[in-house]
Amino acid sequence: MENNLQTLYDAILNGSLEKAVEVTKEAVSNGEHSPNEIINQYMVKAMEEIGRRFEVGEVFVPNLLMSVRAMRGALDILKPLMCGQVDAYIGKVVIGTVKGDLHDIGKNLVASMFEGCGFEVINLGVDVSSDKFVNAAIEHQADIICMSALLTTTMNYMKEVIVAIEKSGLRDKVKIMVGGAPVNDSFAKAIGADAYTSNANAAVIKAKSLISAK
Ligand code: B1M
């Protein structure tokens, strides 16, 4: 089994969609590892490694895109299994990657985890403007707005979104959560977000506690 999951890691790293899908299906039917383990210990690790190789110039954008494709294929199989049985509707989440930023794998992972754990999710996609966040939160009466950013150049836009939320009069009605590789707890506090979480599991746990404290 470990070997199979090592094959999944390799498949994502090498951008092989077919292999990634095949091995993920086997891992699911075998049932020895939870979807969270498969995602965090193999799939996310493969994305980190391809990112490292990209940074040092060993691979290029087309390689990244192939890995993204393989990651998505594997994730589609695991999505329905994330978080297990949902017995009650918990709350509504509006989520998006902020303006200027096109990275969506982590954001979609967080969205899928929310969905799997009983939240209704309005996924606004990537390159999302402050107006779009605010309008969606009003239209859907969101409990939580989640923002994702993967670039040091786009993370600062989160502050603009928070200012727009304040101006719209929504600030005391929604909780604001932020995440993404360059974001951290002190940045979240500095821009006035309610919470930062480093991964999808932690985001759902934190969201539940924010909602119960509302
Ligand atoms: Co880009 N990219 N990229 N990229 N890319 C990074 C982020 C980078 C670190 C790579 C590197 O140089 N090492 C670097 C950023 C450097 C920086 O700003 N400091 C970078 C760069 C520079 C760029 C371009 C500028 C490259 C170029 O064109 N020259 C360009 C920018 C485009 C743009 O956005 N405007 C670019 C483009 C791309 C691709 C399009 C090729 C592709 C994205 C495809 C897609 O997403 N559809 C891509 C990829 C794949 C990456 C790396 C390799 C992988 C990102 C990823 O999917 N990780 C990345 C390197 C890396 O991260 N190691 C890199 C896996 C994912 C599961 O993790 O997204 O971190 P992550 O999500 C985590 C947590 O962060 C958290 O939960 C998830 C895990 O559970 N989380 C949240 C995320 N969002 C959250 C929201 C929450 C809570 C938690 O809300 C509450």
The residue ranges in which pLDDT falls below 50 over 5 or more consecutive positions are none
Provide a count of the helices: 9
Give the averaged pLDDT, no decimals: 92
- CATH classification, class level of the largest domain: Alpha Beta
Q: How much strand?
A: 5-15%
The total strand number stands at 5
Unique ligands: CO-5-methoxybenzimidazolylcobamide
CATH-assigned homologous superfamily of the largest domain:
Cobalamin-binding domain
Core attributes:
alpha/beta; 9 helices; binds CO-5-methoxybenzimidazolylcobamide; Rossmann fold; Methyltransferase, Methionine Synthase (B12-binding Domains), Chain A, domain 1; 11% strand; 56% helix; 5-stranded parallel sheet; globular; 214 residues; 2 domains
Report on the architecture of this protein.
- With 214 residues, the protein is of the alpha/beta class.
- It folds into two domains: 2-81, Methyltransferase, Methionine Synthase (B12-binding Domains), Chain A, domain 1; 92-213, Rossmann fold (3-Layer(aba) Sandwich), CATH 3.40.50.280.
- 56% of the residues lie in helices and 11% in strands.
- The protein is built from nine helices and five strands.
- The protein has a five-stranded parallel β-sheet with strand order 2-1-3-4-5, with helices on both faces.
- Helix 1 (2-13) runs antiparallel to helix 2 (17-30) and helix 5 (105-116) packs across helix 9 (200-212).
- The longest helix has 21 residues, at 35-55.
- 40% of the residues are buried.
- The model has no long low-confidence stretch (mean pLDDT 92).
- Residues 44, 47-48, 50-51, 54-55, 61, 64-65, 68, 100-107, 109-110, 146, 148, 150-152, 177-182, 197, 199-200, 203 line the site of CO-5-methoxybenzimidazolylcobamide.
